[in-house]
Amino acid sequence: MTIGPLRHEDVRRCAELERELFPGDDPWSENAFHAELDHGNYYVAASLPDGQLIGYAGLAVAGREPFLEASVHTIAVAPAFQGSGIGTTLLRTLLIRADEVHAPVFLEVRTDNVRAIALYLAHGFEKLGLRRRYYQPSGADAYTMGRPAQNLTEDDSA
Asked: Which of 114, 112, 119 has its CA nearest to residue 94?
């Protein structure tokens, strides 16, 4: 598996995975992915050696230094590859980007997504609040989670 920039050519596959992974909610459309890429947000793709996209993740950084903050917009892994460490690799890639600009990171996660919550807790996130009926149209609740800004040392970035 390789991690690289998400490209406009990947968007169709992302939208397919969205429909498969989030059928009870409002899956992102191709237009939504194109808009995220056009806006300059940081998106990465996980691909097999043959080029098949099997996961993706996105991060937005907003504000002005020294008051930047980052938001994880999405992390998704194709069902056949879940549990194999791809989500962890995608999250770590996003966190490296946030750490480069010393930004705290925030996200929302379904309260019933035990695997994702455990992943975030293991990477320094904590539950900050609850957003009732956040996901639509299912009405599922979400936790807001956050991770403080990390200060990289020279050894960390090598």
From this structure: 119
